[in-house]
Design brief:
Layout (H helix, E strand, L loop, with lengths): L1 E4 L1 H14 L5 E9 L3 E10 L14 H10 L3 E8 L8 H10 L5 E8 L4 E12 L2 E11 L1
Parallel strand pairs: 1-3, 1-7, 4-5
Antiparallel strand pairs: 2-3, 2-4, 5-6, 6-7
Length: 143
């Protein structure tokens, strides 16, 4: 799968990383998918992180999450930030995915690349398997 994101949406995620720090930022991804195994993300909706420990976890504000599930036809995924770690799914990310994986196609994580010491956004495809949902790394193209 190829995931394309507008430069503006990509910058918004990076800005959300900085404005949320040291907490995890989170939000929704709006876009379209095609039969050619690609997704186009055209905008994001930052959502308040209401987790009890927001520096180490994220939980989308329920009212906003449910509202968009019911009213946003272009909701295709979510994103969150890792304030002090690399942009790879944690065990908790994968565990929580089991409760909402059927609702999305893509998942983005922004975090610090330890080798390059810079902020980067990584893209993942939500994949249904026999035991539930998992994340498969996908190419992210900024357009």
């Amino acid at each position: 799968m190829i995931i394309r994101i507008t430069a503006a949406a990509n910058e918004q995620i990076k800005n959300h990383f900085h404005t949320s720090w040291p907490s995890e930022g989170c939000g929704l991804l709006l876009g379209t998918s095609s039969i050619a195994d690609s997704v186009d993300i055209h905008s994001i909706i930052p959502v308040k992180n209401v987790a009890a420990e927001p520096n180490h976890h994220f939980e989308l504000e329920p009212e906003v999450w449910v509202h968009h599930l019911l009213t946003s036809p272009h909701l295709i995924g979510l994103y969150h930030t890792h304030p002090i770690s690399a942009p790879f799914p944690s065990a908790e990310d994968l565990q929580n995915l089991q409760s909402y994986g059927q609702l999305m196609e893509v998942y983005l994580i922004a975090g610090i690349n330890p080798q390059a010491q810079r902020l980067e956004v990584k893209a993942y495809e939500v994949v249904q398997q026999d035991h539930g949902y998992s994340l498969r790394h996908a190419a992210l193209c900024v357009t």
